[in-house]
Amino acid sequence: LSALLASFLSLVAGAGQLRPPLPAACLPRDLFGQGFAPRLRTDRNSTARVSTDFGQMVTAAPEAVLHPASPGDVAALIRFSASSPAPFPVAPRGQGHSWRGQALAPGGVVVDMRALGRGRHRAPRINVSSSADEPPYVDAGGEQLWADVLRATLPHGLAPRVWTDYIRLTVGGTLSNAGIGGQAFRHGPQIANVDELDVVTGTGEMMTCSKNKNSDLFFGALGGLGQFGVITRARIRLERAPKRVRWVRLAYTDVVAFTKDQELLISDNQASEVVAFDYVEGQVQLKQSLVKGPKSTPFFSAADLSRLAKLASMSGSAAIYYIEGAMYYAEDDTATFVDQKMEALLEQLSFEPGFVFTKDVTYVQFLDRVREEERELQSVGAWEVPHPWLNLFVSRSRIVDFDNGVFKALLKDANPAGIILMYPMNKGKWDDRMTAVTPTTGEDDGVFYAVSLLWSAFSPEDVHRLERQNKAVLEFCVQEGIGCKQYLAHHTSQEGWQQHFGAKWSRIAELKAKYDPQALLSPGHRIFPKPV
Ligand code: FAD
User: Fewer Cβ neighbours under 10 Å: the N or C end of the chain?
Assistant: First the structure.
C-alpha cells in the first residue's frame, strides 16, 4: 500500500512538473523564466535520481536537474549562472559512474547530459567519417555511451582504438578523466585519440578546439575533470575493426616474472610485431579470495578456480597474478593461423606451465565483457552497492615494492569483495600537455602501472574497513616514497589537488581563471571551492 501511495504521490509531483517547474528555493527565480526552463526539474524524484553515483559514497541532491534539448541549453544555463548576482554550481552528468560525488551539484543544477541524445526528431549525434581522403573518425556527442559509438561505427567496419573495460560510460565522462584500458599501451589513453572538441565553457561560451585552435582549452579539457567546460562533441580517431578476439589469461605466482612479461608485451618492439597482443591488462587475485571467494566467474569455471587455488597453496604465494591478453583477428583468418600466432607469442613468456585459459569471442563480446559481470552482480543485488574504489598510477621502478607492501603485507590475509587490476602503460603515449597526470618516471624508461582496487561493500562496516584499508595503502606509498598518482582521483582539500597536479597546477589555475572564473563547473571534485 505504501509503495502504491508513494508512486501516486510521485505521479502527482511529476504532473506538477510538466511546465514550468516550481522554482527551487536556493536558485534565482528568474532562472525559471528562461527559454530552457520547461526542461528543468525540481521535484524530489528528479533531484534524488542524480543525488549519488555508482560509488554511493556521497549523497547530495541538487536544487534542479536540466534535461537539455541541445548544447545551446547547456550554454544558456551556464551563462545565466555566470552572470547572476548569486551564481550556482553546474555539474554535467553522464552515466554517473563516478564514485566520490564528482558529478553532483549540491545547491545547484545537474545537467543530465544523456538527454541530449534522446528525442526522435533531433539530428543524429554520432556521425562517422570514412572517406578515403583522410583518416577515419567519428564525431560523437559528449553524452553518448561508448557502446553506442561502437554500434554506429561497426557498420563502416571501423571502431575507436582505445576502450575502457566497461563501455557503458559516456564519451564526455571518460574524456574528462583519461579513459584507460588494455589498448592504451599502444595508442595511449582515450584522450590521446581525440582530434577536436566542442566545449561549453564556464562562462557559457560554445567553443570548438583542437591542437591548433583554442589549444589551451583542448589540452585543458582532456583529462580536465570537467573543470573548464562541458564537452558536447568529440572527434575520435577510428581504426579498422577486427571481427573476433582470442582472449587469454596466463597465471603467475611470481610478481617479477609477471611484470617482466607484461613489460615485454607492451614494449615498442613487441607492439609493432605481427605476433603481439592488441590488448594487455593484468589482475591480482589475493589467495584468500581464491580460497573463500566466488566458486566461478564469467571467465573462470569452478574447475579452473580450484586448480588456481591449489597453485596458490602449493607455491605459498600470497596472490596469483594473471596477464590478460587479447589478439584481434579477421573472420577469414583460419583457426590454425591464430593458434600458431598465439603459440609463438606464449613461447616468449614465463607463466606457470599449463595455466593458460583461453576464450574465443566476437569483438563486441570482448569489448562489452563487463556487461555480463554487471548482469550477474545485478541479479544477486551486488551491483548497486557502495564502491570505495582506489585507482593508482605507480611507476615501474616501485611496482615490486608496492606489491610487497600492499598485496604481500597489508592485504595478505584480506578477502575483500571486488577485483584488483594491475597493468603497465607507456608514458610516451600520453600527451603531457593534457590535464591528466601520470607519475614522474625518473629512471623508469617511461613505463607506469595502473593499479585499481575495485572493492564492493555490503554494509556500513565494510565501507569503513575498506576506507581504512585504502588509507593504509596511500599512507604506505607516502612512507615508502612511492610517488604514485591517483587516477579518478579524490582529494578533500585544494592542497591535496595542488600536490596531485604538481608542476601542472599553476597552468590549471590559469585555465580555471580564464574558462570558469566563478568555479561553477563540476564542483564535486572540490578542486576550486571558490572563484579564482
Ligand atoms: P560521470 O560520473 O557522469 O561524470 C564524471 C565527471 O565528469 C564529473 O565530474 C562530471 O561532472 C564530468 N562530466 C560528465 N560528463 C561531462 C562532459 N560531457 N563534459 C565535461 N565533464 C563531464 N575508467 C577508465 O579509464 N578505464 C576503465 O576501464 C574504467 N572502467 C570502469 C568500470 C566501471 C564499472 C565503472 C563504474 C567506472 C569505470 N571507469 C573506468 C571510470 C569511468 O571512466 C569514470 O568514472 C567516468 O567518469 C564515468 O563516466 P560517466 O559518463 O559515468 O561520468
Answer: N
Query: pLDDT of 143-196, one tens digit each?
Result: 999 999 999 999 999 999 999 999 999 999 999 999 999 999 999 999 999 999
From 281, 324, 403, 516, the catalytic residue: 281
Name residues whose C-beta falls within 8 Å of residue 38's C-beta, 6 or more positions apart in sequence. 19, 20, 21
- Cβ–Cβ < 8 Å for 280, 273: no
* Residue 99 to residue 57: CA distance in whole angstroms: 6
Enumerate the β-bridge partners of residue 236.
Answer: 138, 194
pLDDT tens profile 302-341: 999 999 999 998 988 889 999 999 999 998 888 898 999 9
Q: What does the alpha-carbon distance between residue 273 and residue 328 come to, in Å, rounded to a whole number?
A: 13
Render 220-263 in DSSP notation, one character per residue. Answer: HHTT-TTSSEEEEEEEEEEEEPPSEEEEEEEEES-HHHHHHHHH
- Select which of 63, 139, 148, 165 is catalytic: 165
ipTM of the complex in this document: 0.99
CA angle 90, 220, 210 (to 5 degrees): 110
Number of H helices, E strands in the chain: 18, 18
- Residues within a 6 A CB radius of ligand 1: 53-54, 91-98, 102-103, 113, 142, 164-166, 169-170, 172-174, 176-181, 225-226, 230-231, 370, 488, 522, 524
- For residue 422, what is the enclosing H or E element? strand 418-426
Ligand 1 atom nearest the C-alpha of 142 is: 18
Phi, psi for residue 16 in degrees, rounded to 5 = -65, -10
281 is catalytic: yes
Q: Ligand 1: which residue has its CA nearest to atom 16?
A: 172
Contact between residue 89 and residue 105 where contact means Cβ atoms under 8 Å apart: yes
pTM of the full structure: 0.94
Specify which residues 140 forms β-bridges with. 126, 234
| Strand-strand pairing, 40-41 and 64-66 | antiparallel
